[in-house]
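Researcher: Please translate sequence to structure tokens.
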Amino acid sequence: MIAITTADQTLVAEIERLLASPAYFKQVLDCGADHAYREVLIAWSDVREKHALQRDELGRYFLVACQTEPV
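Model: Translation complete:
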């Protein structure tokens, strides 16, 4: 078995696009449905290291710089 240690940058970009507006973590997982769960978590970790994230009143995640008004 090969350990995955680096994030798939295509998947990272997909997650970043998704988080341009509020999204539930389930939606993040669905965004990476064609990838192994571990790959999605590594990409999620990469996004969290690169960007400030916040959660809205419904618990949805979004990139701080992308949120201009509540959805």
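Researcher: Any highlights?
Model: Residues 14 and 37 are 15 Å apart (CA to CA).
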